[in-house]
Known about the structure:
With 211 residues, the protein is α/β, with parallel strands linked by helices. It has helices at 39-48, 59-72, 81-89, 118-128, 139-147, and strands at residues 13-20, 24-27, 54-58, 95-98, 111-114, 133-135, 153-159, 167-170, 178-188, 192-201. It has a single domain, classed as Dihydrofolate Reductase, subunit A.
Amino acid sequence: MGNTPADMSSANLMIDLIISLDGYASAEGWPGWWGLEGPEYLAWLGQEGEKGYTFLLGANTYRLMSGMSHEASAEGSGFSENEGASLTGLAAVPKIVFSSTLKAPLTWPNSELVTGDAVEAVKEIKRARTGPLSTLGSLSLCRSLLSAGLVDRFRVVIFPVITGRTGSERIYAGYPDVSLELADSRTFDGRIQLLEYVPTLLNGPPGSNPQ
């Protein structure tokens, strides 16, 4: 009735999302991390950055994040110190970009372009490579990879805000039904909640017999 985690000898893939409590990826007029990042959360982000992830992203996220990374490296960028460090640090991280519109060579350092079908490409990446993979933004890519049963971990970091009026990019729109087995949880700075799950795709509600 679903997918099973990938063999541990292959590259494991994690969907990694930062969301408001009501499931938005961002909100108009709000700062990065909704202005609620704290020292515990930022220290954890630094530790995560040392784990050797290769990031998977789509064209829209590539254009947005590469531009922000370049902007953050300039003086007087307007980003906070924490935002600037996070954005500029992404230049050194290996990234695989899935797009039929971008052209090689990509200008953001350490970015590899894949022009074919993303799902098929990720199947091959998981089979042929080792080391952890993680998505970076790219909501439609996340949805496609989860629907294809390629995701080994599903992690959300929930910030304690509701942005029903200003929120944009509804995270779970168009998702399949998925059951989630809790694998890890923790709280940062007394307010930010991390939840990490092993996902299993469902063909329908539990106990149903969909055709």
